[in-house]
């Protein structure tokens, strides 16, 4: 076989099901090898979207997603999605083409150093200079991509190397289980928890990986401890649990921070500083126990006093075994905060009849329409704060958002990939009008794949998050408004079904109708962001914590 065929054989050996991307002439040998393969090629309309899709496969399956581009501009379009995967902890292999490296008749046309360009945003970036190197390079890439913290890797396949013959075969796939923490580390963590008066559990992004949910739920139930999450940790334990204090959508100043401020010890599971901090550590404040697959990255806002490193599920089970719920623990205050959260956050304005709808009403309508195992895929914008704060996730990876790179344009591609790997579940992309238009061309991809997918476009005709920040900082509003297409006709021009919400109470039945009919639906939903000022600026500034 040739090198391209060997590369595809290696991908098959690793269990790859999809390759997302846009091939170029330098990829033709690889494209031919994929034609003969059981791997499905998903042709996208932009390389950035292909990277988001591959990252989502990695996020949801725990296996490495794969995407493909040509050299030059195709490869540079991968940069945002590679950074997205790097900060978000999503395993992805980016494959790029290149001109012949032994002899080229095109000079430097389209050539930049892609390998070096990708190095800062990947765990490993290599050019394939000999087909015989493919088996070990692919195996090492997959190992590096999956090791905690997971992330992106990159291989460049030059056009002439792709066609060269080789007699090598794929390496055997091996899996390395993370070690458990030492008994001493578990014992010290247990002693710190036993000695605390008000310990509080924090579930962060890594809790949604590696099947940790059962062990985390068991820990909560056995200890009686209250918990909260980061935005990317939502749903690691069902947020309807009576000991759940919701998510830290902000870094400080919200109702959940009343509980954080009263805690004397925070057991921080699965956090790393790439995600926006859920609270700010200060000298002389709460002590923190860091529990994760990898050591803490020390930072001015995060400097834990003890670390428990290794398999999170195993370590949480050992920690639960080592702890006896203490009569000295004082959880009454956390219970009162929970009641306050229920009234002020989860239920507040859920029945508001104003139109355009306020964010709280939209969150409530979407939550009522979504099945417990439905997957809601958020783009980035002001609404992300509202959904992180008000939307109760019932299971891990049912609210897919990005609070690490926090890039716009990912919502629709993420939803397409989620539906591909979880076809039996309801999937909704929820985007602002700004983020939706950054990759809206992928509607054609969803239609071509014959997916059942609902896209909600929240319309405010501007960049709402920055508008709020601009006003919050007392700057005059300037430079953030834009025009939009008619989203109903825009959807219909692709062959999708469009619907415009024109009154309160229409969104929930429109979602139900779209789920029942199947196919691709785009729902245009006007949104009133005046609550940004009312809640995030005025109300929280005057917030009174329960006594």
Provide an overview of this structure:
The chain is α/β, with parallel strands linked by helices. It has 3 domains: 3-162, Thiamin diphosphate (ThDP)-binding fold, Pyr/PP domains (Rossmann fold, 3-Layer(aba) Sandwich), CATH 3.40.50; 183-340, Rossmann fold (3-Layer(aba) Sandwich), CATH 3.40.50.1220; 347-538, Rossmann fold (3-Layer(aba) Sandwich), CATH 3.40.50.970. It has helices at residues 3-13, 28-35, 47-61, 72-76, 79-88, 114-118, 134-146, 159-162, 183-195, 213-223, 255-262, 312-322, 332-346, 359-369, 382-390, 411-421, 433-438, 443-448, 464-472, 487-494, 507-517, 530-541; strands at residues 18-22, 40-43, 65-69, 92-98, 125-127, 152-158, 199-203, 227-229, 244-247, 265-269, 287-292, 306-309, 375-378, 399-400, 427-432, 453-459, 497-500, 520-526. The strands form 3 sheets. It has a 6-stranded parallel beta sheet, with helices on both faces. It has a 6-stranded parallel beta sheet with strand order 9-8-7-10-11-12, sandwiched between helices. It has a 6-stranded parallel beta sheet with strand order 14-13-15-16-18-17, with helices on both faces. Strand 7 (199-203), helix 10 (213-223) and strand 8 (227-229) form a beta-alpha-beta unit.
């Amino acid at each position: 076989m040739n090198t391209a065929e060997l590369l595809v054989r290696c991908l098959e050996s690793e269990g790859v099901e999809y390759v997302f991307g846009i091939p170029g002439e330098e990829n033709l040998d690889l494209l031919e090898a994929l034609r003969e393969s059981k791997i499905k090629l998903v042709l996208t309309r932009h390389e950035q979207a292909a990277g988001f899709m591959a990252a989502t496969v990695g996020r949801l399956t725990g296996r490495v997603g794969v995407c493909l581009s040509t050299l030059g501009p195709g490869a540079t379009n991968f940069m945002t999605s590679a950074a997205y995967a790097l900060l978000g902890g999503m395993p992805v292999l980016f494959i790029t083409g290149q001109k012949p490296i032994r002899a080229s008749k095109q000079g430097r046309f389209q050539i930049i150093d892609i390998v070096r360009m990708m190095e800062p945003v990947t765990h490993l970036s290599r050019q394939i200079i000999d087909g015989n190197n493919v088996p070990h390079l692919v195996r090492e890439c997959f190992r590096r991509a999956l090791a905690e913290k997971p992330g992106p890797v990159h291989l460049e396949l030059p056009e002439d190397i792709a066609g060269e013959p080789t007699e090598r075969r794929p390496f055997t796939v091996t899996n390395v289980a993370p070690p458990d923490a030492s008994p001493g580390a578990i014992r010290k963590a247990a002693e710190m928890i036993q000695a605390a008066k008000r310990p509080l559990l924090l579930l962060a992004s890594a809790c949604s990986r590696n099947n940790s949910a059962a062990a985390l739920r068991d820990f909560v139930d056995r200890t009686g401890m209250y918990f909260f999450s980061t935005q990317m940790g939502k749903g690691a334990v069902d947020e309807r649990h009576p000991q759940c204090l919701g998510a830290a959508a902000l870094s400080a100043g919200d109702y959940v921070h009343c509980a954080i401020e009263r805690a004397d010890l925070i057991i921080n599971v699965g956090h790393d500083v790439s995600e926006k901090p859920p609270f700010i550590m200060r000298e002389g404040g709460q002590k923190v126990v860091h529990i994760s697959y990898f050591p803490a990255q020390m930072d001015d806002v995060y400097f834990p006093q003890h670390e428990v490193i290794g398999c999170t599920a195993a370590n949480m089970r050992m920690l639960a075994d080592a702890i006896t719920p203490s009569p000295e623990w004082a959880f009454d205050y956390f219970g009162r905060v929970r009641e306050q959260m229920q009234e002020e956050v989860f239920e507040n304005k859920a029945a508001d009849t104003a139109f355009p709808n306020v964010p709280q009403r939209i969150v409530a309508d979407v939550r009522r329409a979504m099945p417990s195992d439905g997957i809601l895929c958020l783009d980035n914008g002001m609404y992300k704060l509202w959904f992180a704060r008000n939307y109760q996730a019932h299971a891990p990876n049912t609210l897919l958002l990005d609070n690490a790179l926090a890039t716009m344009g990912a919502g629709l591609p993420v939803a397409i990939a989620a539906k591909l790997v979880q076809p039996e579940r309801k999937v909704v992309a929820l985007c602002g009008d700004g983020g939706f238009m950054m990759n809206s061309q992928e509607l054609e991809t969803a239609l071509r794949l014959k997916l059942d997918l609902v896209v909600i476009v929240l319309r405010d005709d501007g960049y709402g998050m920055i508008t709020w920040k601009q006003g919050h900082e007392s700057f005059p509003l300037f430079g953030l408004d834009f025009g939009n297409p008619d989203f109903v006709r825009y959807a219909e021009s692709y062959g999708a079904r469009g619907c415009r919400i024109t009154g309160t109470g229409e969104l929930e039945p429109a979602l139900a109708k779209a789920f029942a009919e199947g196919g691709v639906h785009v729902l245009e939903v006007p949104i009133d962001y005046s609550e940004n000022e009312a809640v995030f600026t005025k109300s929280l500034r005057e917030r009174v914590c329960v006594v």
